[in-house]
Amino acid sequence: QVQLQESGPGLVKPSQTLSLTCTVSGSITTSYYGWSWIRQPPGKGLEWMGGITPDGRTYYSPSLKSRTSISRDTSNNQFSLQLNSVTPEDTAVYYCAQILWAAATLDYWGQGIQVTVSS
To answer: CA neighbours within 13 Å on the CB side: how many for 19?
Structure first.
């Protein structure tokens, strides 16, 4: 069973860049799995942000594409999220997750990390 753990700052100032890392207990370079970032603002539903395909391509939610960058570090089994020009509306619990690519299901999730955007 794979384990995922988000890490990064819990507080970011408006207009700055939010940077998070997801550390995976196994290899992230498999042909079976992709990797994704999802967030949940307070009182709202889950919002898919983007991810990485099994062959390393990135893809993003259209609503966040202009501000989002996702990358992977295969040597450390990590993938990362950068969200630029944050506002208080980006305050949320951020999750990383593994995607079983053939079924398009989110199989395993990290526990989530609270990020607050505030001055």
So the answer is: 5
Distance CA 14, CA 3 (A): 31
In this structure, the strands spanning 11-12 and 113-117 are parallel
Task: Find, among 90, 101, 85, 116, the residue nearest to 28 by Cα.
Answer: 101
Q: Mind listing the pLDDT tens digit of every residue in the chain (119 residues)?
A: 899 999 999 999 999 999 999 999 988 888 899 999 999 999 999 999 999 999 999 999 999 999 999 999 999 999 999 999 999 999 999 999 999 988 888 999 999 999 999 99
25 residue type, one letter: S
Neighbour tally for 69: CB within 10 Å: 15
Cα(25)–Cα(28) distance, integer angstroms? 9
Of the candidates 54, 41, 40, 44, which has an alpha carbon nearest to the alpha carbon of residue 98? 54
Q: What angle do CA 75, 106, 70 make, to 5 degrees?
A: 45
Structure tokens at 8: 């990064």
